[in-house]
């Protein structure tokens, strides 16, 4: 298994323009929330007040992977995913049209943000070359947020040593 820095560096190599990263702060959480909402049906059972859904299964597997990559970022991702899971459960008991409108709507708008960011970047999204980019994207956003707050400088420096610092590109054709 690739290390956390390996995974972040590969993903970060597609995301060095700060405007692209900024759009990811909006788009990726929207996409994650949308996927959780859409996977919150059907509920196979309710155990201790928690609906057992495809969303719960995906969240548990993804959370285990995040914790294995980096336990501190993994815990942060679990908290975020628990919030998404709660949101998904709330929408799952609404009408089908409400559930689908929110799930599909967040998904589409989230991807619009992503593609606008990659327009600024001048590069295709990371998942086009490596499907793992779909899993690494959310933890990349968590890492970038931590870096902005001055946290995990060790990880930031290790990633930047491999792919360089973030910039604002003067030319979109770069």
Provide an overview of this structure.
By secondary structure, the chain is mainly alpha-helical. The chain has one domain (20-162). The chain is 70% helix and 3% strand. The protein contains 7 helices and 2 strands, in the order ααββααααα. The chain has helices at 4-12, 18-38, 54-69, 71-92, 96-121, 133-148, 153-163, and strands at 45-47, 50-52. Strands 1-2 form a two-stranded antiparallel ribbon.
Short description:
The protein has helices at residues 4-12, 18-38, 54-69, 71-92, 96-121, 133-148, 153-163, and strands spanning 45-47, 50-52. The radius of gyration is 17 Å and the shape is globular.
Number of domains: 1
Structural shape: globular
Proportion in helices: 55-70%
- Note the main sheet: 2 strands, antiparallel
The helix tally amounts to 7
What is the chain-wise order of helices and strands? HHEEHHHHH
Please compute the radius of gyration using only Cα atoms.
17 Å
Percent range for β-strand residues: under 5%
Number of strands: 2
The span between the termini is 32 Å
Class by alpha and beta content: mainly alpha
Poorly predicted regions: none
Strand order of the largest sheet: 1-2
Q: What is the averaged pLDDT score?
A: 93
